[in-house]
Amino acid sequence: MRAFFLCVALAVSFVPRAEAMGMRPHPPSSWVRVAVIEGVQEATLSIKGPFQVVTLETGEVLNEGHSLKNVPVRPAPAGLRVGDTSYRFNALRILADKTKGVVVNGRSYRGHLEIFREKDETLTVVNRVGIEEYIYGVLRHEIAPWWPDEAIKAQAVAVRTYAAYQRSIREKEDYDVTGDVMSQVYGGAKGETWKIRRASQATWGEVLKWKGGLLPAYYSSTCGGHTEAATEVWGDQQAPLVGRDCEFCTVSKHYSWRREIAADLVQKKLRWRGLDIGPIEELKILERTVSGRVKSVQVVHGRGKTVLKGHEFRMHVGPDLVRSTLFNVYREGDHFVLSGRGWGHGVGMCQWGAYTQARRGTRYSDILSFYYPGAAIELLEPKPQPN
């Protein structure tokens, strides 16, 4: 962990200025670190308003100014280069003084930035943002803002819980979550709406807990009639994630799907994942889970037989092609035909199921109880008192 404990100390000289402009500093427990850019040689940075550049390693204030506009950030031979200024440190924190004042590659972010020079001389850019503001940036991309309020509230609690859980297990890493589909899609300050902010604020600080600990509140678009047990995908054996029947997502356009995938494309994708696969002759489903999803699939090919877990097969071939592991498959000429139900891993809350329940008048707390049975809604931290 790169000096996480220095967070408050680094900001001491900066906080009075921020408070004067109306920004309330967040306690360390309410931040989340989102990797918004990874593996690039250069990023473009703009800052609206006063800022400071500090180093994570020592807490030293290296630079400060009033604004930046379209400044390139690059790895330097011995550190990082921001515009014309080189720093001999491999990690920098840029403290912004204005809400939505940081712009990276044209996208605006709340909070601050942390920039890392990786060993392969690429950049990782992390947005350090208050968890409540983070939710604003996720909801617009994970759920339609015109959906019923109770569905948006349920989603807000799930988003907050997932982020807090990841933060709790990744303290020694450079970031807690990514900003893409591998974690939760995060668009920064772009796309925030008053309805999303209102729904999020109505659930301020609420998270799901089980046996006193944070629950990894997984969710997916459409479960296809039955949510999946987390143990079948990631090995989590917590009771609220065992899976259950769901009759509410039939309205989803992803409830049923069909794909034709060329056999040589499947081979190419599996080989790209490092598997020694010859020309594929057959895909044979060996076992299914309680929910009906593919538990294991046998790939019969020119070099033998390779058995993959259903989730592995889906991710290797591509979740855009194999919408879920709830599918049947047969060969037709030089293609495999997959027909299935649902979109996503199927664990936890079914978003389209939440939509239907909310349309029928179900409160968000009851929606969460349905998809995470046994979990309790609790506050992540005490609610701040108005000044």
Describe the structure.
The chain is an alpha+beta fold. A hairpin with a 2-residue loop joins β7 (102-104) and β8. It has helices spanning 7-11, 15-20, 131-142, 149-169, 194-202, 230-233, 263-272, 310-317, 351-359, 364-371; strands at 31-40, 43-55, 61-76, 79-82, 85-87, 91-96, 102-104, 107-109, 112-117, 123-130, 177-178, 206-210, 213-214, 219-220, 256-262, 280-288, 294-301, 304-309, 327-332, 335-341, 349-350, 376-379. It is 24% helix and 34% strand. It folds into three domains: 4-130, no CATH class; 133-251 and 345-379, no CATH class; 256-341, no CATH class. The strands form five sheets. Strands 1, 2, 3, 4, 5, 6, 7, 8, 9, 10 and 11 form an eleven-stranded mixed beta sheet that branches. A three-stranded antiparallel beta sheet has the order 13-12-22. The chain has a three-stranded antiparallel beta sheet with strand order 15-20-19.
Q: Characterize the biggest β-sheet.
A: 11 strands, mixed
Average pLDDT: 90
Task: State the low-pLDDT regions, or none.
Answer: 1-26
| Total helical segments | 10
Number of structurally distinct domains: 3
Q: How much beta, percentage-wise?
A: 25-35%
Distance between the termini: 34 Å
From the alpha carbons, calculate the radius of gyration and give it in angstroms.
Answer: 23 Å
Measured as a percent range, the helix fraction is 10-25%
Structural class: alpha+beta
Please give the number of β-strands: 22
How does the overall form come out from the CA principal axes?
globular
